[in-house]
Amino acid sequence: MNRTNILDLSDGQHLEQAFQATDKQLRVNRQGGKYILLRLADRTGTIAGMYWNADERIFESFERGDYVLCHGRTQVHNGNLQVIVTKIQSLDPSEVDIADFERFDADRAEALRQRLTELISEMRNVHLRRLGEAYLQDDAFMAKLLVAAAAVSNHHAYPGGLLQHSVDLMELARLIAPQYPQLDGELLTFGAFLHDLGKIEELSAGGEVSYTDRGQMVGHIVIGVQMLNEKINSLDETEGTFPPDLRLHLEHMIVSHHGQIEYGSPKLPVTLEAVALHHLDNLDAKLASYTSVIDADIAADSNWTNYNPSIGRKLWKKRG
């Protein structure tokens, strides 16, 4: 079945092709008519879909996560491309090329795993190195880390995105630490590794990224601290007592990395390493998010993206 990737769709394009329906909501408009709001996906991204004049029969004819054949056309609405769906039907997985929808890059994940191993093995602080090795030798943990996303949307929101974000942040920490001798570079680098690990339990690992029950009720910051304490306690049983002060600093970097109370951090950063981690994390997340906005923009003949309400601006996208 021939199809156009979501990233390559343009305004006014007629469609008859497969997507994955990662979300669906039956809604009622002001006039009392029903419509279905869809989130359609493939390996290149997601796009909103609107099925007007729908009913329960159509809504119940497919499930979230199903592959669906959509008839319709693309349309720009408020600066964003969407699909106006006129017909939809569920497809058996055998009727689609799964490679069109698989976003996990196993080769890339393996290269990142190897780099993570190198970064931890090079640490001179024996306590941090042994703690890192405890994570690396936990097969169940590593299996989840390799496929975990860093977010539902915004940045690194794809299988393997968490590992990419974590390793990139560790590289940034190693890059800037020599410029600031007042920083403990290895502590900062290890904090970059730890800061988002709770997301392997906060977000679902299979299919479309979504929040787990534990993620909704507890959140990745608390989960990350719990995971850290479990690992340190296991080390205490085999390697002797982990330095309490070092444990405290690691916990603080996890709980403060969002930088502000209103952004979800229980505590503000109060150590130099925690301050640096917050700003590096924000830098990496923002650049990844804004790059996605540029890559997905439909204004092909302009140096600027369309106005994006979520970031309150247009972005300059001409490169080179």
Verbal overview:
The protein is an alpha+beta fold and 320 residues long. It has two domains: 6-100, OB fold (Dihydrolipoamide Acetyltransferase, E2P) (Beta Barrel); 106-293, no CATH class. The protein is 42% helix and 17% strand. The protein has eleven helices and five strands, in the order βββαββαααααααααα. The chain has helices at residues 56-59, 106-121, 126-136, 139-147, 161-176, 185-194, 199-202, 213-217, 220-239, 244-256, 272-296, and strands at residues 14-28, 34-42, 45-51, 67-77, 80-91. The protein has a five-stranded mixed beta barrel. A hairpin with a 2-residue loop joins strand 2 (34-42) and strand 3 (45-51). Helix 6 (185-194) crosses helix 10 (244-256) and helix 6 packs across helix 11 (272-296). The longest helix is centred in the last third of the chain and has 25 residues, at 272-296.
Give the structural class.
alpha+beta
Are there runs of 5+ residues with pLDDT below 50, and where?
none
Proportion of beta-strand residues: 15-25%
Task: Describe the main β-sheet briefly.
Answer: 5 strands, mixed, barrel
Order of helices and strands: EEEHEEHHHHHHHHHH
Mean pLDDT: 91
Number of helices: 11
Query: Which geometry do the CA atoms define?
Result: elongated
Number of individual domains: 2
User: What is the helix fraction of residues, given as a range?
Assistant: 40-55%
Number of strands: 5
**How widely separated are the two ends?**
36 Å
**What integer value in Å does the Rg equal?**
22 Å
Strand order, main sheet: write it out: 1-2-3-5-4
